[in-house]
Amino acid sequence: MTNSNTQGHPQKALKHLSNFERTDMATSRGTTGKTSDHLFGDPEDLLIDRAERARRQWQTEMPEVAERLTPMVLLGRLNEAAQVMSRDYLAPAYAEIGLKTGEFDVLATLVRSGPPYKLSPTELYRSTMMSSGGMTARVDKLEKAGYVDRCPNPEDRRALSVCLTEKGLKLIKEMIPAYVEVQHTAIDGLSGKEQAQLAELLEKLIRSAAEKKTP
User: Fold this and answer.
1) Cβ-count burial of 57 within 10 angstroms (0-12 exposed, 13-18 middle, 19+ buried)?
2) pLDDT for 9-19, tens place per residue?
3) How far is residue 177's CA from residue 57's CA, in Å, rounded to a whole number?
4) pTM: predicted TM-score of the whole model, two decimal places
5) Which long-range contacts (CB under 8 A, 24 or more apart) does 32-41 make?
6) C-alpha pair distances (Å), 130 with each of 3, 125, 148, 211
7) How far is it, in rounded angstroms, from Cα 190 to Cα 1?
8) Cβ-proximal residues to 34 (8 Å cutoff; 6+ apart), any chain
9) Tens digits of residue pLDDT in 168-181
């Protein structure tokens, strides 16, 4: 994804490209129909994101769908935005306290559930959208680290709940203020109004897409 500080400055934009992206840019001359003496192709292409480049290539390759590619661009940008936010902002924040994404999700879900900070495995994997197998592995690791315990479920003697320990509660509550700042940094390329608009539109999109698949 092109950094907002590189708009209008192809040479600066080039610094933000991986080796793979540079190679892709060099070969894109043949797929976009442009030619250039520039080492990495037309400098203007450096300001085009992956989704827009894909759209232009499909428009050339399959003109019959040229006017129906907006969803492809939208979904491509949503996917890339999620990858960038996770890779460059969220995952490093979890790593600072020795956690991976799924492990943080388990602890954070327990904390935000409120006292007594206890949930059944089913409640946990539904809240975090993990598989039951994935949840078990993460709880095992967190229990070994002393962040959670398996404790009796008062509503079902045959079942165990996942209970947050004082150590786990302290870890997450001390980390959250800095984590919130990381999230602000990740999206500060949008104004407050734009952030609110995007959040509302994504909520609408998620709801409508899910309803289509609901029996």
Assistant:
1) middle
2) 544 444 444 44
3) 43
4) 0.73
5) 32/56, 32/57, 32/60, 33/60, 40/14
6) 32, 5, 17, 20
7) 15
8) 28, 41, 42, 45
9) 999 999 999 999 99
